[in-house]
């Protein structure tokens, strides 16, 4: 996808990877970028910083009616949506001890929000014969987020859903990409480190931390090439191959890393 003159929506657009995507899409010549986020003031601040092509919107991505309204309002304002980025995401920082409410929130933000977006935006895209969905899924969706069971499970589900969409709709003009970064210097990582979450510590120990702007650059390149898996950290592809070829050895390596960080 060439982003020039495109109409783009970014959820979770008020910070981290989302705000970097919004800024980069505008810099690439998008005609409009809708910065959608649960935090209204933050969405307005990002949109104001981008300039006239940006429009803020307040949305809770776990509420299907609000997602439908976001899509309908954008289509009324601009006539169409060319690229919808389902980017909002949450972590828990824990394992099976995490309560049901946190598991449910992770499921609703990391998976169902993507389902709600697809339900809302696909009819218009299909009627026009084209469109692109970009789902931020994380490297946890193709590997494992050590220390965060709910994040691992929901991000695997997010990648699976994106793949299903791609298989089902590509021949009808719909392109789907799963953006799967590993360590990114965002408030999510900083908060995890401050809380002592094991997953954040594993990421920090890897030393491969990208900026959100670097992730946005990789996303633009992947969209241009219409790639399904967009891997800002190229080593993730090698890790995924190793995991597939030798799952026992892969798990043994991660257990060794965990022991080193926790003893």
Automatic annotation (TrEMBL):
It holds the Pfam family adh_short. InterPro entries: NAD(P)-bd_dom_sf, Sc_DH/Rdtase_CS, SDR_fam. Keywords: Oxidoreductase. GO terms for molecular function: oxidoreductase activity. This is SDR family oxidoreductase. Belongs to the short-chain dehydrogenases/reductases (SDR) family. Gene3D superfamilies: NAD(P)-binding Rossmann-like Domain.
């Amino acid at each position: 996808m060439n982003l020039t003159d495109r109409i783009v929506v970014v959820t979770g657009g008020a910070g981290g990877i989302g705000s970097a995507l919004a800024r980069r899409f505008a810099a690439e010549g998008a005609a409009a970028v809708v910065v959608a986020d649960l935090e209204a003031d933050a969405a307005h601040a990002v949109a104001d910083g981008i300039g006239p092509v940006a429009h803020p919107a307040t949305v809770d991505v776990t509420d299907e009616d609000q997602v439908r309204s976001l899509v309908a309002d954008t289509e009324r304002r601009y006539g169409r949506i060319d690229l919808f980025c389902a980017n909002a995401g949450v972590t828990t920082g824990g394992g099976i001890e995490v309560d049901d409410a946190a598991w449910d929130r992770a499921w609703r933000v990391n998976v169902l929000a993507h389902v709600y977006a697809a339900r809302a935006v696909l009819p218009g895209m299909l009627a026009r014969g084209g469109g692109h969905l970009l789902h931020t899924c994380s490297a946890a969706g193709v590997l494992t987020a050590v220390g965060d069971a709910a994040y691992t499970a929901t991000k695997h589900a997010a990648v699976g859903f994106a793949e299903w969409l791609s298989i089902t709709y590509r021949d009808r003009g719909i392109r789907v990409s799963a953006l799967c970064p590993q360590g990114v210097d965002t408030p999510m990582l900083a908060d995890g480190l401050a809380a002592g979450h094991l997953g954040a510590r594993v990421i920090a120990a890897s030393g491969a931390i990208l900026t959100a702007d670097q992730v946005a650059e990789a996303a633009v390149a992947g969209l241009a090439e219409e790639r399904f898996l967009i891997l800002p950290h190229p080593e993730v592809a090698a890790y995924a191959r190793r995991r597939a070829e030798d799952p026992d050895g892969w798990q043994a390596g991660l257990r060794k890393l965990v022991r080193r960080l926790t003893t």
